[in-house]
Write a structure and sequence with these properties.
Helix content: 25-40%
Order of helices and strands: HEEHHEEHHHHEEEEEEHEEHHH
Largest sheet: 6 strands, mixed
Number of domains: 1
Radius of gyration: 21 Å
Amino acid sequence: MPARTGAEFLDRLAAARTHVEIQGETLTGGVAEHPAFRNVVRSYAELFDMQHDPAYRDVLTYPSPLTGEPVATSFLMPRTPADLEKRRLAFKLWADRSLGMLGRTGDYLNSALMALASAADWFGQADSAFARNIAAYYEKVREEDLLCTHTLIPPQANRAVTGSQQAGGALMAHVVREDDNGVVVRGARMLATIGPFADELLVFPSTVLRGTPEDKPYSFAFAIPSDAPGLRYIAREPLDYGRTHFDHPLGSRFDESDAVVVFDDVHVPYERCFVLGDPELCNGFYTATSAVAHMTHQVLARTTAKTEYILGLVTLLTEAIGIGQFQHVQADLAEIITTLETLRAFGRAAEADAAVNSYG
């Protein structure tokens, strides 16, 4: 299936049975129609529709190397400076649609998967199967245009101890057993932004792990469907208060929702595992693969769009009430302008100074 439309995104979400707990209510489906999610879900659907708009599709898509059909540009493995530019232009188009307010649009983690798959051989250090798994998973997400979320950190009940010591080691998500077909995971992770309406959850390393036997159960990277049995999202209080777009132009459209993820003995098949029981590989997960560079490339484009919006808004405010002549106001405006130009300079330097890494 090529790049999805907004309707296709909504259809898949309607068929999902994702377990979401929000403000005392439990959902097992129907997320797209719930008041906490329906508006932001439709903002995401608009992004998918942009991929098919003649004004944007040449930037937002490229031909799949597998089928030749259009797939999202955020999956494009950059081999040339022109590829980097195309990726940045695609990031900026999507970011401009939300004024830079949507922080976890699909292009963010698509960029991570692109870099990880390009470095598939690195995953093969532990087992050649992991190299095949990451390459196959990247291809699946690209061809099906899936929307991914990811977990960032373990819950921090006590910051004075490591994750493996939190609540006697039971709090942080960890592998409790293996079988012939995969591993079983129990515990919690956070902070899965857009988790309640994402297609897939990427459970990636985040904190530095020590190379001790105690850290082995916490050393993994894998992906599972958001409605996998035993998986629960506990969403925070929504910032969409049901008001109109006119009254609440940001909260009524762009509240992405963050969630704690609870694994109640979730079974993860081996073919969806990329690292298992190897703290050293987990610690090099982002840097050794260049994933962090490509994720940050997207972040930079989005932050530039957000800063442009803030500068425009502040300029209109100063003009509307006639305070542009005051020096402290001018100083505040100058600070925003400086921030914006710094971001643009970072983006230009990142692309101008780019070099081919060991994975091409």
